Amino acid sequence: MKRQIRTLVTGFGLVGLAACSTAPVGSSLDEGGYGNPTMNNIMVQTGQKPYAIQLAKRFAEEVPNTVNFAFDKAYLDEQAKAVLRQQANWIRQFPEARFRVFGYTDLVGTERYNKSLGMRRARTVVNYLVSQGISRSRLQAVVSYGETRPLIPTPNRERRNRRAVTEVSGFVKTAPLVLNGKYAQVIFREYVKSAVPTDGVEAAAASSSTSTTPTGN
Question: Which residues of 20-58 are buried (b: 16+ CB within 10 A; e: fewer)?
Fold first, then answer.
């Protein structure tokens, strides 16, 4: 009798595990397969996810995260290069962070061609950021949405749809602070840096403290 009960319990347990295995925890957050939801869970548990979201928000608020392209082209004009130089200056402040570039097109042309064009645009952005001193290991140009996510839903040529967007994607695995989970130190570092006055402010303060005001009779 005990053996029969044990067999039934084991059977129900296997059924339960099979049911759970079809939907890994976090799968609703990322449709890229089992590995991505697992990574998402690890980032949440170790504290990386909240900091990554915060850093991504800062990046989008403090520098332009988008560059645009001419029709059917993947080269950067001077305006785009100026934006990417701003991005590079910001990225250098966070050596522990990684970034991903998404390439897009407008709705003119076939989906297959536009997906390839979107990827070329993303790679062009990555190559320019590398030319500005950013390590290629911190940059990814592996995703192209092609024509599937237009900002402006029109079948005609639309410059705003022909774009590449840079976003925070995670952290460099070899970064000491990331390995130790000490994200508060990173935040504190940036807080202290932002509180340091510039040379001009320091000079003005020193001049004000040493100058004397003549008094009248």
Answer: eeeebebbeeeeeeeeebebbeebeeeebbebbeebbee
Q: Which two tokens stand for residue 120?
A: 């070329």
Q: In angstroms, what CA-CA distances link 48 with 9, 136, 159?
A: 38, 22, 35
pLDDT digits (tens, 9 = 90+) for 13-46: 443 444 444 443 333 444 444 444 554 544 444 4
pLDDT digits (tens, 9 = 90+) for 92-106: 998 888 999 999 999
pLDDT tier at 115, thresholds 50, 70, 90: very high
Is 209 part of a structural domain of the chain? no
CATH number of the domain that residue 130 is part of: 3.30.1330.60
Q: What does R_g of the chain's alpha carbons equal in angstroms?
A: 25
- Residue 82 maps to a domain: yes
Number of domains observed in the structure of the chain = 1
For 68, the 3-state DSSP assignment is strand
Please indicate, yes or no, whether the overall pTM of this predicted structure exceeds 0.90: no
Strand partners, 100: 140, 167
How far is 190 from 93, CA to CA, in rounded Å? 8
